[in-house]
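Workshop exercise sheet. Pairs work together: one partner reads the sequence aloud, the other fills in the structure field after running the prediction. Swap roles for the next sheet.
Pair: D.N. / O.F.
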Amino acid sequence: MKPGITSLGIARLARVLANSIGTRFTVVGAKTALARAAEGFPEERPSAFEPETLLPIQYYETLRRHRELHGEKHLMFAVLQDAIDGFMKYVDSSTRKGQRRFRESEEWIDHRDKHWLYSFDNVCEALDIDPEYMRRGLHRWKQAHFERRRETAT
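Structure field:
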């Protein structure tokens, strides 16, 4: 285990708690394909016009439309959202604080850990998100972001 990874998780958890104290949230969730199949729903096929990847914001909107999350799952969702926001907002930050927030988020997302309750893998699995899929999607987004920046710079 890398030194400091647990402390990054604790810092993120503290930041999320500080932001949510005194505020009431309603967050809803999505059913996985397996859950829909178990209920007798046929598996949905993507149309030819749907995008190949699912952006985090698209997943969050799906979460909000289907079911409420309570207690620990709400906190896990907030921790994941904080990390993804830090990853996407500060990916090319020029400030020290922004670079640190991006680095913390990226390290938390990349660290594979099943022991820490609020690790990226455990948080994703608790929210019915495939952690590897989300990790790959975030890194593809980062790569595409820098490619777009290079194209606009030329």
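Discussion prompt: Confidence is low (pLDDT under 50) at residues 23-37, 41-48. What would you look at next?
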